[in-house]
Amino acid sequence: MKKIFWLILTIIYSKTAEIEDSNIKKAELLDKSETCSKKNDCILEETAEIEDSNIEKAELLDKSEPCIKKYDSEKRKKIEKMYPGLYENRQENIRFRKNLRSSCENDPKRNDNVKFFKGEIKSQPDGDFIDNILTKWKGNYKLLEEHHGYIQWLFPNKEPGMNYLSQPLQLHELDKLKSDSESVEKLLKSFELMLDFYGMELNKKPVGFKRSENYKKRYQNLIRNRHNFLRISRILKCLADFDLEEYQIEWIKFLIEESFVNQELSDLDRSITQFYVHTIKNDEKRHEIIKQIELKIIQFILNEKI
After folding, report:
1. What pLDDT does 68 receive?
2. What burial class does residue 153 get, using C-beta atoms within 10 Å of its C-beta: 0-12 exposed, 13-18 middle, 19+ buried?
3. 306 inside domain
4. Which residues, other chains included, contact 165 with Cβ-Cβ below 8 Å and sequence gap of 6+?
């Protein structure tokens, strides 16, 4: 009887221990899960948004059917072969146009861009206050070319860029900046600073662009130093985010003329077709610009009649 009694106790103890171990493991897993969940909140939101963007991508691809349909198929094939990016809807472009953001991009504690535009902090690294950049740096082409830390501050957007000391634009910052007339004016002055650097001038009423007197040397510098192509993408996105669409679209039109028609900036052609035109958020206006590009390619690159 004693042996049976101790055998029963042993079995009960063993089962109890197993249950306790199981509960401990469950608790540990719950802790890990909770920690992981907290750490990955932003990632989960980001993933959900990417899935949403994939759905929108399919819809946008339907809308972005080549405008060349009204021309013969041979011309369309030639354009697609030369500039496939004209008809592509890259996910990064869709996310930008649809203002898809995660909570990671709206941290109320991050205010560096607002502080910079208000003149409270300098750009980093080795930068200056915004008012000094807009006045003292203008025309200093060597500095503007070789210094790589100011462009992310003058034209902030949600993408980190190459300067890890700059802060990606937060949603609450964008709301503050674009509703503040002084900040918008500083952005436009920054735009004129870079236009002068590129050999271009801005007319504000009506909005339009033209070459500056020293455009030949500045165009040569632009083409020779191709990191400026990326700078232009950043500027265009910033103009769009600040609701300065008219400046953005008219500048793209000017770049199209200089690239495809006048062929003074012919090396910009792929950046225009693959990136610049896709920063236009309004679908109808973007498709209209794509039509214009198609016509320019047929007439001036393929040298064919429409």
Report:
1. 53
2. buried
3. no
4. 124, 125, 149
Tokens 């060597």 map to which residue? 142
Kindly report, residue by residue over 168-215, the tens digit of the pLDDT: 999 999 999 999 999 999 999 999 999 999 999 999 889 999 999 999
Structure tokens at 137: 């740096």
Cα 52 from Cα 42, distance rounded (Å): 15
| CB within 8 Å of 182: residues ≥ 6 apart | none
Element (H, E) at 115: helix 112-117
Domain count, the chain: 1
Mean of all residue pLDDT scores within the chain:
82
Residue 130 located in a structural domain: yes
Separation of CA 64 from chain center: 20
- Position 106 in a domain: yes
> CA nearest 247: which of 185, 174, 175?
185
Q: Supply the range of the domain harboring residue 246.
A: 2-301
SS (H, E, C) the chain: CHHHHHHHHHHHHHHHHHHHHHHHHHHHHHHHHHHHHHHCHHHHHHHHHHHHHHHHHHHHHHHCCCHHHHCCHHHHHHHHHHCHHHCCCCHHHHHHHCCCCCHHHCCCCCCHHHHHHCCCCCCCCCCCCHHHHHHHCCCCHHHHHHCCCCHHHHCCCCCCCCCCCCCCCCHHHHHHHHCCHHHHHHHHHHHHHHHHHHCEEEEECCEEEEECCCHHHHHHHHHHCCHHHHHHHHHHHHHHHCCCHHHHHHHHHHHHHHHHHCCCCHHHHHHHHHHHHHHCCCHHHHHHHHHHHHHHHHHHHCCCCC
In a domain, 139, yes or no: yes
Contacts with 127 (C-beta within 8 Å, 6 or more apart), sequence order:
133, 147, 149, 150, 153
